[in-house]
Amino acid sequence: MNRVSDLDTVFAALADPTRRRILSMLLEDDMAVTDVADPFEMSLAAISKHLSILATAGLISQEKRGRVKWCKLEPDALRDASVWMQSFGQFEAVNLDAFERFLKTELNDGGETSHD
Fold it and tell me: Are 34 and 43 in contact (CB under 8 A)?
């Protein structure tokens, strides 16, 4: 996959609030699939589908330990998405109040000179 399609997969996975909540839960520690499913009012099959989407996006990994399938957050998985989003931070935030004052000053100056 190329970088753009990787980002598309990550953002598509993050678009769902259930999947974001699962990621937040996995910030604490690795969890068994059944433990991930506990707080949600949906079937284990539905949770498994969400976990599969997160795994496909590289956001989590899953491994079988004995009879139990465990989920682990992949901490570096959001790096490309984070770098991409930070590139928009290169622009200084606009101070709207200061901009409004500037516009009023400019408009007033322009208006006064046009009356002369």
Answer: no
Distance CA 81, CA 9 (A): 10
Please, which residues have CB within 8 angstroms of residue 33's CB and are 6 or more apart in sequence? 44, 47, 48, 51, 62, 68, 69, 70, 71
Does pLDDT of 114 surpass 50?
no
d(CA 77, CA 6): 10
- Give the count of beta carbons closer than 10 Å to the beta carbon of residue 7: 17
Among residues 54, 48, 42, which one has the least CA distance to residue 12? 54
CA dist 68 and 102 (Å) reads: 63
For residue 32, give the nearest of 16, 18, 44, 17 by alpha carbon. Answer: 44
Regarding pTM above 0.85, the answer is no
